[in-house]
Design brief:
40 strands, 22-stranded antiparallel barrel, Maltoporin, Chain A, 4% helix, mainly beta, 5-stranded mixed beta sheet
């Protein structure tokens, strides 16, 4: 199943993956200046050693926008995540942050996007070896070799290897992230600097175990927004996964009972060919073509915690088998139920983008074409199991209720299994005009017209009464529901016309002070992945207006921008997994969201060698038309009406403080502090977590022209605590939460204190 379905909390952040770049080529920098923004230390990630930082703009999450050489790294992030075949390593010459308006026009998505470029060959021979480690045992290597072959031909070759055991010792896998990426590029430069032709091949294999290994932990919810560790369980360093890595599941396509390991179930592979051509004419006209074919297998595993059960109450009889096969009674206080979601799909992508760019004396006009085709055969096989909740910091064990079953795994595909197969195609025509009307006024505007087609099948099956058949135990293609309905694929065929409009203006009142603003209006329709649940999504158009306006001020030592913003989005499709007495009901939902905000960004250099970045953001994201209801098997009727509530997981106040000082011409000392205010931990705004500081600090030493060394300390304030949402708490109301004090819950947690070392050698 999709992450947005597993937990409603995951719906409420726009995720943007960013990374540290290598040397920026002059040409790329020149062309991308007006398209990009400052990255604001986006690579300091308080959640992961190798994953991207999350940037929140108050909207539900969309696909991660990461571009390499002008094309999305992946068409869809589920089940083939960006991080499985793209890393910010020595193979990249440039990584920047595209503006929201530029992202909307060129990709059709709302939000910031990563803009990265592959490092191509240069004259002579060049090499770069990057290495990173931490005190938990991370080993990350990246090697790039590039040079000339003669007669205008150049080569570049790169190898990336990641061996990350994570911050705690899990028994289901040796690594939380094991990724290997190999990339080779061959470039032909045209005579007289007319341009170049490039061919790139990339092969990757990745096991993103962190998607399920770091997902949850038990802790005591005190009741005042704070948490306490449970017994000897240490947040961030104690594993909450059972020792046994093997999983039993039912294949959605065939009904076969199969077994796999969690490590094998998260295996991603990709084999990709990329071709590009750049050509420049003397009249200022440039033609750019980028094309990529990717044959991939994507996989993501989630071990989603559901309800916590008092094992010694309610007539339970939990048992487990020890290493000798002897069955023993479990005498612990709690049992954690988990839903395992094994997402996988076979994928073929063909992405083509072509652009004509014409430069005039005071403006640049661009005409672009996208032809993006996505073939996928996807399932999410789900199963349930129960595990112990140890207080001594030991590993959890799988248990089963001997009154109900004799094995560990049950309810195959019952709750949130998913299936879709077919094709999604996007054909789009877009233009932009960047116009310096005079020395004081700049205007940027553009539009995008997109034809989107979906063709294929899913498993949103209706019975004879015209009602959707919910996922039942042992659900699969060919199964028969209790009412006699035969489960068979349902054909899909949709055609939509989408469009995007964007405009931005900057006016210089004087050489230092000015006015700035931008407006983006996007009309889109559901993606193929929205058709994966047991019901069809709302297929009405999704409208996203975004407006920002404010002032800026620049002088020799200060740069300030202050903006008010408004953004909203209609017809968000999601599915909530609502729980009652151990039963889980999938509740489809369509809702709106609205966010008002104010951001002030300051970069200052008041003293020689000293720089500081300050960011303050206030935002108020609220749910609109957020209401759903389900009826459980015992007749209990329950639901959620969160209209008007502050969106879960998103802080209303964000503060960033980033000072740095050059101790010497070769040594830089820096720190970074990020404050996130109170965040609600369920949709009903009943639970909440207090604000906290993320802290980073480090020193960078340029030993010489060949060697750079660095040391970074993550969470040097050593804060421990929780974030995200509380598992199984979707239906808890504010009145009910008043009585929930000093209770055991399950949720996500802050990244623990970590010391990282890095080195970069050029030769």
């Amino acid at each position: 199943m999709r992450k947005t379905i597993i937990s409603a909390s995951r719906v409420h952040a726009l995720i943007v993956a960013l990374a540290v770049s290598g040397a920026i080529s002059a040409q790329v920098k020149k062309d991308s200046n007006k398209k990009e923004e400052n990255n604001r230390n986006v690579m300091l990630n308080a959640a992961s050693a190798n994953g991207p930082r999350e940037i929140q703009i108050g909207l539900p999450s969309a696909d991660v926008n990461v571009l390499e050489n002008g094309l999305p790294v992946t068409f869809a992030t589920n089940p083939h995540s960006v991080n499985s075949n793209w890393r910010s390593d020595a193979s990249l010459s440039h990584v920047g942050l595209l503006k929201i308006s530029e992202t909307a026009i060129t990709t059709g998505n709302i939000g910031y996007a990563v803009n990265s470029f592959t490092k191509l060959g240069q004259k002579g021979f060049h090499g770069q070896l990057d290495y990173k480690t931490n005190h938990f045992g991370l080993n990350e290597y990246s090697l790039n070799l590039n040079g000339s072959l003669g007669q205008g031909w150049y080569y570049s070759a790169n190898m990336y290897q990641d061996f990350d055991p994570g911050t705690f010792d899990i028994k289901s896998s040796q690594y939380q992230d094991r990724t290997q990426i190999y990339k080779g590029a061959l470039t032909k430069m045209y005579d007289n600097g007319r341009g170049k032709f490039t061919a790139i091949y990339r092969n990757s294999k990745s096991h993103p175990v962190y998607t399920f290994a770091t997902q949850s932990a038990p802790f005591i919810y005190v009741g005042d927004g704070s948490v306490q560790e449970y017994g000897q369980f240490r947040l961030g360093t104690t594993s909450y996964l059972p020792v046994d890595p093997n999983m039993t599941y039912m294949d959605m396509r065939t009904g076969e009972i199969k077994e796999t390991s969690l490590y094998d179930a998260s295996k991603n592979t990709s084999s990709e060919v990329f071709l590009s051509n750049d050509y420049h004419w003397d009249n200022g006209l440039t033609w750019r073509l980028a094309a990529r074919y990717d044959h991939a297998h994507g996989a993501l595993v989630y071990q989603t915690p559901m309800s916590l059960i008092r094992a010694q109450k309610g007539g339970y009889n939990y048992r487990y088998r020890n290493m000798l096969g002897i069955t023993n009674r479990y005498d612990g206080e709690y049992v954690q139920t988990r839903m395992s979601c094994l997402n996988s799909g076979d994928i073929d992508e063909v992405l083509v983008t072509s652009e004509l760019i014409k430069k005039f004396d005071q403006s640049t006009f661009r005409l672009g074409l996208n032809e993006w085709n996505y073939e996928v055969d996807y399932t999410s096989n789900t199963s349930m199991y129960d595990q112990t909740v140890p207080t001594d910091g030991d590993y959890a064990k799988r248990v089963y209720d001997a009154n109900l079953r004799s094995g560990y795994f049950y309810d195959f595909n019952r709750n949130a299994s998913e299936y879709y197969k077919g094709n999604e195609n996007k054909l789009a025509l877009y233009f932009t005009h960047d116009w310096d009307i005079n020395r004081n006024l700049n205007l940027y505007y553009g539009g995008r017209l997109e034809w989107q087609r979906l063709n294929g099948e899913n498993a949103a099956v209706k019975n004879a009464m015209g009602e959707y058949v919910n996922r039942f135990s042992n659900y699969h293609i060919g199964a028969t529901a209790a009412d006699g309905t035969k489960i068979s694929p349902v054909a899909l065929d949709y055609n939509w016309l989408n469009y995007d409009l964007s405009a931005a203006a900057t006016y210089k009142v004087n050489p230092n002070f000015g006015l700035t603003g931008d407006f983006t209006y996007i009309v889109q329709h559901p993606r193929f992945e929205n058709f994966s649940p047991a019901t069809l999504p709302n297929t009405d158009k999704v409208i996203v207006p975004l407006g920002r306006a404010g002032v800026y001020y620049n002088n020799s030592w200060l740069s300030l921008t202050s903006l008010f913003s408004y953004i909203s989005k209609t017809n968000n499709n999601t599915t909530l997994n609502l729980q009652h007495n151990g039963e889980i009901k999938a509740a489809p939902l369509t809702y709106d969201i609205q966010t008002l905000g104010w951001t002030t960004d300051i970069v200052a250099s008041p003293l020689q060698g000293f720089n500081i970045h300050l960011l303050f953001t206030y935002q108020r994201p609220t749910y609109k038309k957020f209401e759903t209801e389900v009826v459980f098997s015992d007749g209990h009727r329950d639901g959620i009406n969160a209209t008007g509530n502050i969106v879960a997981e998103i802080p209303q106040y964000i503060v960033e403080i980033d000072p740095s000082y050059m101790i010497s011409p070769k040594v830089r000392l820096w720190t970074s502090f990020r404050y996130q205010s109170k965040r609600y931990a369920n949709i009903n705004a009943a639970y909440y977590f207090n604000g906290y500081w993320e802290s980073f600090g480090g020193v960078n030493w340029k030993v010489n022209n060949k060697l750079d060394l660095g040391c970074t300390v993550v969470n040097f304030l050593n804060q421990t605590g929780a974030k995200g949402t509380i598992a199984g708490a979707e239906l808890i109301t504010k009145d009910q939460a008043k009585d929930y004090k000093n209770v055991l819950v399950t949720g996500s947690y802050l990244r623990p204190f970590t010391i990282e070392f890095s080195a970069s050698l050029k030769f």
